[in-house]
User: Which sequence fits this backbone?
């Protein structure tokens, strides 16, 4: 968990409280932010919590699962209740089927995906992926992206052998050993894989095909509580300011995400260009949800939700309130 030097004061307060069982008032506890701290996309969220949010905020390994009371994803989360959580749009769509009160507040970062492949495996075009072994996680945004890339060549997942590997570092290791022919995953593991291949590398960019929308999410319950909503609005403002700062000078954000993910600093710098620090609500957000819903519904053997139903998952009011605040408020 990452906080702004708040752990010791909180522990001291808890000791003084003795056996008291009354819950801590909202105003007296850190804003609980959950997200995958082993992704580059979370860099500006860390920066917002560390240097721009005027209150106390903790950033803990987790996901939307922490918003909706679902079990943590093995290897990607800790137990705990979130006020807000970051995740790709894919997971918002997945979790909102059983939790329709989930709300997407804004896009923090756009992740620009790519297919990293071994040229010597006989791969010169995406069509050559047929019959190849590919390290990816099909049920994630990276898996969705790869499906789109295959579709453009008239292929599907049935034409390749997907190899899901967790922890993600195992993907690069498998590529180095020749156990897989390609890697499709978010950064910095894509960059690690590219470096391992060296001159044997061939890449296929997803530009114009798909970009991940790494969003900030909450729930109607959190947003309807005045005290919690006010804190969330201030954090969104902090995210806007932190993203602007990172676009101008990324050094501090890179430093924070290097520490959170235990990354090699060089890998973080090299991966940086594969992200866009948006901190806004994309005009095509609903269109993206509608398209991806078709894919997810097919995977789950259910009817896709309508555009009107999906529109209810987007709440831009918090972003509007944050924009109305002055910088640093």
Assistant:
């Amino acid at each position: 968990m990452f906080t702004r030097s708040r752990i010791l004061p909180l522990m001291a307060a808890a000791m003084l409280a003795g056996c008291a069982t009354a819950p801590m008032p909202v105003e007296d506890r850190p804003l609980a932010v959950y997200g995958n701290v082993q992704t580059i996309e979370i860099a500006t969220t860390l920066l917002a919590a560390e240097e721009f949010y005027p209150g106390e905020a903790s950033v803990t390994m987790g996901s939307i699962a922490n918003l909706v009371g679902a079990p943590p994803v093995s290897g990607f989360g800790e137990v705990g209740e979130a006020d807000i959580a970051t995740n790709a749009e894919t997971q918002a769509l997945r979790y909102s089927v059983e939790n329709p009160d989930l709300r997407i507040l804004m896009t923090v970062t756009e992740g620009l995906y790519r297919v990293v492949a071994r040229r010597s495996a006989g791969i010169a075009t995406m069509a050559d992926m047929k019959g190849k072994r590919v390290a990816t996680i099909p049920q994630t945004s990276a898996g969705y992206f790869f499906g789109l890339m295959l579709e453009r060549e008239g292929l599907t997942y049935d034409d390749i052998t997907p190899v899901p590997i967790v922890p993600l570092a195992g993907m690069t290791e498998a590529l180095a050993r020749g156990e897989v022919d390609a890697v499709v995953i978010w950064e910095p593991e894509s960059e690690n894989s590219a470096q391992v291949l060296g001159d044997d590398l061939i890449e296929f960019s997803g530009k114009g095909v798909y970009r991940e929308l790494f969003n900030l999410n909450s729930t109607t319950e959190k947003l309807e509580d005045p005290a919690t909503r006010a804190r969330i609005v201030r954090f969104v403002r902090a995210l806007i300011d932190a993203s602007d700062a990172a676009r101008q000078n990324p050094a501090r954000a890179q430093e924070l995400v290097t520490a959170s993910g235990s990354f090699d600093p060089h890998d973080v710098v090299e991966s940086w260009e594969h992200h866009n620090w948006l901190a806004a609500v994309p005009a095509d957000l609903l269109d993206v949800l509608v398209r991806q819903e078709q894919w997810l519904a097919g995977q789950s053997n259910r009817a896709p939700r309508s555009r009107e139903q999906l529109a209810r998952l987007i709440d831009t009011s918090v972003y509007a309130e944050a924009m109305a605040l002055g910088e640093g408020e």
User: Anything to note?
Assistant: The CA atoms of residues 139 and 299 lie 9 Å apart. The first helix runs from residue 7 to 17. The first strand starts at residue 31 and ends at 35. The chain is about 40% helix and 15% strand.
